[in-house]
From TrEMBL:
Protein name: Plant bHLH transcription factor ACT-like domain-containing protein
The keyword Transport appears for this protein: no
GO cellular component annotations of the record: nucleus
Domain (Plant bHLH transcription factor ACT-like) ranges: 95-166
Coiled coil region boundaries: 36-63
GO molecular function: DNA-binding transcription factor activity; sequence-specific DNA binding
Amino acid sequence: MMSREQRKKAAGALHEKLQILRSITHSRALSDASIIMDASEYIEELKQKVVRLKQEMACEEAAGGGALQLKHSSSSPSPAVTVETLAGAGAGAGHGFLINVFSDKSCPGLLVSILEAFDELGLSVLQATVSCEDTFRLEAIGGEMQNQVDNVDEHVVKQAVLQAIRTYSSQGCRQQQEERY
């Protein structure tokens, strides 16, 4: 059992640690429980900030990387893009494309840039599976729209997707960073 003096010493040490915690977290709370709750919220904010900074670093690396290197390895720092022609996938036009894009880094908004490139080519997205959490993965089936020119092939689609990624990497990530501050 603790003596009265030991309890006083322990209570004083706890109070001192809570005051340090209070000053670190910029808490104005007076009660011990409130100081701890404020510290918990502060830790969550720091975790979110770390995630945001990691995303910004990934965006800056993608923007500063210059030309994209195409590799099919999951450890590749640059996006891998594959395009295959599918027969009968278009909305009446006769063919479409299976488009796969993978990057081990993700920036919010990359999907929008790629979908805009599809639209510019006259491709409608018939089916898509997308993951943007930690990595970026897109598998889409795009079909040519009826009133579009028929000169779209695998190479044209691949180049349009790569250009969308390059444009996004050089502009999109920077704009998002500026909007945050």
